[in-house]
Amino acid sequence: MENPLIFLLILLGLISAPIEEIDINTSAISDKLIIDFYKSTCPNAQQIVSDVITKQSQENEGIIPGIIRLHFHDCHVTGCDASILLTPQRYNSLNSEMAHPANSISLRGMDALEQAKAEIEKQCPGVVSCADILAFAARDAVVLSGNPKYEVPAGRRDSLATDGSLANDLPKGNRTIDDLIKSFAQRGLSREELVVLDGAHSIGQTRCLNTIADSDSLVGLDDAANLVDRKFQQMIKRKFCPESQKDLFWNMTTPLVPAKPDISNWGVTYYENMLNGKSLIPSDIALAVDPRTKEIVEYYASHHAKWQKKFNEAMIKMGKINVLTGDQGEIRKTCRWINAVNTA
Questions:
Q1: Does 249 share its domain with 287?
Q2: Which residues fall within 8 angstroms of residue 80, CB to CB, at 6 or more apart?
Q3: Is 71 a catalytic residue?
Q4: Which of 73, 76, 100, 201 is catalytic?
Q5: CA–CA separation, 327 vs 331, rounded Å?
Q6: What are the pLDDT digits (tens) for 223-237?
Q7: Structurally, how many domains does the chain consist of?
Q8: What is the pLDDT of residues 35-86, one digit of tens each?
């Protein structure tokens, strides 16, 4: 630091060190998607997706957080190109995003997406991409969670390939805030958008592995470890993730919010839990103590309507990460495999 007086004041704790800004890769966010992309070619596409997701969620509410997570996991790897939907049994052996340990048994909602795709193909064969269907479905899941409806720009194309090893970059519960901020910045997303999208953790479930029930997950996250509510941690261990079963944590799951929030307050409830050390995910608690993100968490813990608006905007932006458009990729006939395999 060039100014010795400022350095001394920081050292004495009289002022805070300036927050280092990380360059955001704005080129990762496409400007080629448009609202009402299918207005003339398949006007009922979004309604078909909405009807299927609504009906399926009534039979299994777990697909609501499942589809939001699918969209995030798809966009975070190679971009929003439906590569996560490629089934390993019909494509490229086991080297697929779907088969990667970060996904594999934890993915939910694929059947609903496939049903929506089949219904759309009956009306508009070869027109609507699986990547757009997933983006529409994620929006519908967000609305079913309690947020206002928002418009989803479309025009994405589906990928022709997938490399499962790239899913190593997906965020894990024990990642440092440095890692998360850099990972989101590489994909065109800011610190605030990282915190805002993290609010989706207020619904659904997670594996016991890499949660606060797994003592190893807090190594290197000292501030988060100090904030953890010990009574809450012991309750999770006793009720959902007993230490005696640690070898099975890979398959065992626990609700992200054991005391399920009212649908009108999702998101905000989770930020309140983070600030009180009652989150399952160590990196989420770390967001509540790191000086780069703490104030953002505190703000959205008491501004629900603003969080909803910002969450919707962040979902729209996330849906534009490294998309395929124009003559790139293809429009799959079936979301589970590429057309070359489908016709083989």
A1: yes
A2: 71, 74, 131, 134, 135, 156, 318, 319, 320, 321, 322, 323
A3: no
A4: 73
A5: 10
A6: 999 999 999 999 999
A7: 2
A8: 999 999 999 999 999 999 999 999 998 899 999 999 999 999 989 999 999 8
